[in-house]
Design brief:
Layout: E1 9-12, H1 17-26, E2 32-35, H2 51-66, E3 69-79, H3 100-114, E4 120-130, E5 136-147, E6 163-165, H4 177-183, H5 185-197
Helix pairs in contact: 4-5
Length: 198
């Protein structure tokens, strides 16, 4: 049975500092975590059609290049009024610069253009752990909520300032990290990962 040993060195397959911090916090300091960016690993082209597919692709890429067990997240925002977009293209909606102010404005603009008052949305996080030249374990978590405009709050990253999770009146951009980390899509995926590997 596959298990992650406490204290093992893992590479977080991300160049996003905010995502690396969240992954580190959710791992409860159990591991020696280094980001792919810090190792100078290139980012692979995300060519899969699902969050799980992209997470597996990134974890496999980082594990095989670094020789370390790798953990990868692929996550994004899906909007009911946009037929699930931006979904796996969430980061790309921010352009080459990954400008999420622009991406959030695009979500609002496209909803307006469609004449949609449907503000339901959900975040999905797929997590994959890959062993170098070995097996991969992948899980997925989701949190539902509604969108609000204009964006609110300077905490978090990505689309957090426009997303209000169910049961709250604050956006992810307004919630303290400890609160967000307890309820987020990534937290829910981590619970499944811990059950499988810890």
């Amino acid at each position: 049975m596959l298990k992650l040993e406490t204290g093992a060195r893992l590479v977080a397959a991300t160049h996003n500092p905010g995502k690396a911090r969240e992954i580190s916090a959710l791992l409860d300091g159990r591991f020696d975590l280094v980001a792919a960016g810090a190792l100078g690993l290139p980012e692979p082209e995300e060519t899969e059609a699902t969050f799980v597919g992209n997470a597996v692709l990134k974890a496999r890429h980082a594990a095989d290049l670094s020789g370390l067990i790798a953990i990868a997240d692929d996550s994004g925002l899906s909007v009911a009024g946009l037929d699930g977009d931006p979904g796996v293209l969430s980061a790309r909606w921010g352009g080459d610069a990954k400008d999420f102010d622009s991406a959030m404005a695009r979500v609002e603009r496209e909803l307006d253009q469609r004449g949609s008052a449907d503000r339901r949305a959900w975040f999905t996080s797929a997590l994959a752990v890959a062993w170098p030249q070995g097996p991969v374990v992948a899980v997925e978590g989701r949190v539902d909520g509604t969108l609000t405009f204009p964006p609110r709050g300077g905490l978090g990253f990505g689309y957090d300032p426009i997303f209000i999770p169910e049961g709250f009146d604050k956006t992810f951009g307004e919630l303290e990290a400890a609160v967000k980390d307890g309820i987020s899509h990534r937290a829910r995926a981590f619970e499944k990962l811990k059950a499988a590997l810890f």
